[in-house]
Every structure is written in C-alpha cells, then in structure tokens.
Amino acid sequence: MIRACIFDMDGLLLDSEHIWFRVNKAFLARRGCEYNLEMRRAVLGRRERETTETLARACGISEPLESLVKERKAVMLQEFRSAPDLRLMPGARELLESLKGKFPLALASSSPRELVEIAVGRTDIAGYFSVIVAGEDVPNGKPSPDPFLLAAQRLNVPPADCLVFEDAPNGVAAAKAAGMRCVAVCHAHSPREHLRDADLVLDSLAEFSFERFPSGT
pTM to 2 decimals? Predict the structure, then answer.
C-alpha cells in the first residue's frame, strides 16, 4: 500500500542539471581541469561536500576541502538565484497537482537547504510538500538511505509504504536501501540501464500513472 510519495529535486522535478554543469565546469576551470561526463555521473545525486571532494580528487586538487566547499557553494547559490533557465521538468507540476491531497508529499534533496529554498521558491512548488529534507539534515547522503528514512519518519509513514521518485542511480540505491519502492526517470546523464534497480523506469514524469506501477496503490 502506497501511503506517501517522496521526491528528489534536481534532475527530477527541476530541469537544473545544466545549471549544475555550469557550476562544476566553472569551479574546475579555475584550476585548469575539465569537467567531463564521467565526473558528472559520479556526482549525480550526491551532497555538496561529497561532490566537491569527488571533483577535487578526480582533478588532483590539494587545497583544503572546507575552502573548496565554501567557494563552490557561493557559485552555486548565485547561479540558482539568478539563472533565467531554472524551470520544472515536463510533467512535474501536473504530477504534484494530481497527488496533492491524495498523499502526503516530501522532498528529499542532496542539496543544501539554502539552495533548496531558493529553487522551490523560484519554481513555486514549496506548497506541495509537508516535509522537506535537505543535505545537511542527515549524517549520510545518497546512496545511503538516510534522506528517505528521515522523510518517512517526518511523514509518520513506514518506509515500506513510501514511493520514491528519482533520476539518479545514487538516489535509486538510497530508495531501495530504505526499503521503499522507486520510480526512476532517465535522461541523458542518467540512462535507463543505470536505473535498472528501480521498480519502474520512465522517460518523463508525464508518463507516470499508478496503472503503470507494478504494485498499484
């Protein structure tokens, strides 16, 4: 029985991966390193600190991690505040609207709370969620189940009764580790074959219906 739905944010609800690309490309370019597809897939769905650490390791950057995190976060927040191309993914608002009032909804993002608040405010989706979990709210980020387990706890719904919507392999792994069912949406940077552990893989949120979901409601 599905009693609650939990959503990832970046790349799933928000068409924001191109913004993250600009952030990470600029961050590495200052140090003479090129941001490539392998790095992009490695950090997809990861938290701010873990992403920065992964990028620094890939490029052999030896600067103190704390200063790198601070620098990248400043660039990130500025981009999300001012980017004219921050928008929702196809079908995102329609799906949220269709679920509103039928299920309690939570947002479980790897991004820092300050960024989450900017993003959901600019896209006017904050009102759909009774719970918002951000990266700093849990001891371990995705692929750890911590973000989804905390969302379920705050919703007061058993993990087994939660349905997660994700777009990243790290997020799918986190949902399955939490004992939750998972719908994944593939895209160019998260192809279908990387999401095969999900219960259902779609090309767009616009395709979702409970009739298509193997276990129904």
Answer: 0.88
